[in-house]
Specification:
The complex is a heterodimer of chains A (323) and B (103). By secondary structure, chain A is mainly α. Chain A has helices at 3-9, 13-30, 34-49, 51-91, 95-101, 106-143, 146-173, 196-222, 242-274, 290-319, and strands at residues 230-231, 240-241. Helix content of chain A is 76%, strand content 1%. Classes of the chains: A mainly alpha (323), B mainly alpha (103).
């Protein structure tokens, strides 16, 4: 163990969890003499003796963990939505959709309804839980932080990119745009919408936009100190801290994701029993094999749900008072 | 907020607040700035002892990590505390200098 690491180990754990990384960087630059070592040892002793400050560090650590947990659930929800879009692509305009429309297979229809209900609950929980944070962050960004304002524009640009992409494809389809050698002239027979490359392009724009937007939201929230902000909830005598509120809703989101995941597995099972031949065809994502595409969807949804529950457990443990 | 509550860290805390008065800085940046301003070099243990107290009192706040370093910024409460401490010191300095001049 290096001297730097050893000196950092002298500090109490809550202090290390908060400051160890940046303190180590500082020590790389300014640990020169025995006096420096003595000063750090004195600082460590002081950190052990100052109980009120240790409690404050615990509190700060709790807030940090709770905030990260909320963001983990949010990021996993975005991943889950990408999986959900793949499922929608699989089901839309498929023989399974025909069976559901004609209500010939009740288990198929029931599982699909559960998927839709779960998706709505998850979306509502994200929106309702995220609105107070979003509102506070937007207000602050507009008044005080230019950097946050720039980051807030990323989701807007991501949406614009998606709209522009659609507009571009439609204009190719209408013959308004054609670049000889790159974009051939089109006729009504080779309209590009539905083309594998066009769908792949749209998915790429969507996924990149979703990743960039999630990263921007993550960055904004991580350096916003909103722990003092509270909300008045009807039926509660005391105002609820904004992170506590968002965390409660993130539990609802995670449970709804689990519900959708289970219903998706059931829907896949019912689809396979009713129409096994479809699973051998290429009706999946980007016209790939249906079975492969469905497994991909399930894997994305399962990983997202697992990560969301990891976030929930982490947040729950952070809120639990230390014994 | 009275920095006297910080005990032996009250002077380093004031130096940190003064260093952050012209914009955010990370630990090493503050150390260098304080050395330039006052000729005093704060040890890493003293710097972080004061810095942790300032943060937990809400007088400074961390910004996003840059190259493994955490820059800190004065909060509104921190700027008010710094202003209060500096005017107190200014009053003390002018009263002391007047008395010295009278002797």
């Amino acid at each position: 163990m290096s001297l730097r690491r050893w000196l950092i180990q002298l500090y109490p754990r809550p202090w290390r969890e908060r400051y160890a990384d940046e303190f180590e960087v500082l020590l790389e630059e300014c640990l020169h003499s025995p006096l420096d070592v003595f000063d750090i040892m004195l600082g460590a002793l002081d950190a052990h003796l100052e109980v009120p400050y240790e409690l404050n560090w615990r509190l700060m650590n709790m807030v940090n963990k709770l905030r990260t947990s909320i963001l983990i659930v949010f990021a996993s929800y975005i991943g889950f939505v990408i999986g959900g879009m793949s499922l929608y692509g699989l089901a839309d305009d498929s023989p399974m959709a025909d069976l559901m429309k004609t209500r010939t297979d009740i288990s198929l229809l029931a599982s699909w309804i559960i998927i839709e209900v779960g998706a709505v609950i998850a979306l509502l929980a994200v929106v309702i839980g995220g609105l107070p944070i979003a509102w506070t962050v937007i207000r602050r960004a507009l008044t005080t932080s230019r950097q946050d304002f720039g980051l807030l524009l990323i989701p807007v640009f991501a949406l614009l990119a998606l709209i522009l992409y659609d507009g571009f494809i439609v204009s190719i389809g209408l013959g308004l745009v054609h670049i000889p050698g790159i974009i051939p002239e089109v006729s009504p027979d080779n309209f590009p919408i539905g083309n594998r490359l066009v769908i792949a392009g749209k998915m790429l724009v969507f996924v990149l936009g979703a990743i960039a937007s999630t990263a921007a939201v993550w960055k904004i929230i991580m350096h916003s100190s909103l722990e003092e902000n509270a909300l008045n909830i009807p039926g509660r005598t005391k105002p609820m801290k904004i992170y506590e509120y968002a965390f409660t809703l993130s539990v609802v989101t995670s449970l709804a994701m689990l519900l959708v995941l289970v219903a998706t597995a059931a829907w896949g099972g019912s689809s396979y029993s009713a129409l096994p031949q479809v699973f051998a065809e290429n009706r999946g994502l980007l016209l790939t094999n249906t079975t492969g595409s469905f497994i991909f969807t399930l894997v994305v949804m399962s990983v997202s749900t697992f990560v969301a529950f990891f976030g929930v457990v982490r947040g729950y443990l952070a809120r639990k008072p230390a014994a | 907020m009275n920095l006297v509550d910080f005990g032996r860290f009250s002077d380093p805390a004031l130096l940190i607040l003064a260093s952050l008065a012209d914009g955010p800085k990370h630990g090493y940046g503050m150390m260098m700035d304080i050395e330039m301003m006052t000729g005093m070099r704060l040890g890493a243990g003293t710097l972080y002892g004061a810095l942790a107290r300032l943060e937990s009192s809400g007088l400074i706040k961390p910004l996003a990590v840059k190259d493994r370093r955490h820059p800190y910024q004065l909060t509104t409460k921190g700027a008010a505390a710094l202003r209060e401490q500096l005017s107190l010191l200014q009053k003390l300095a002018s009263a002391g200098l007047k008395r010295l001049a009278g002797t």
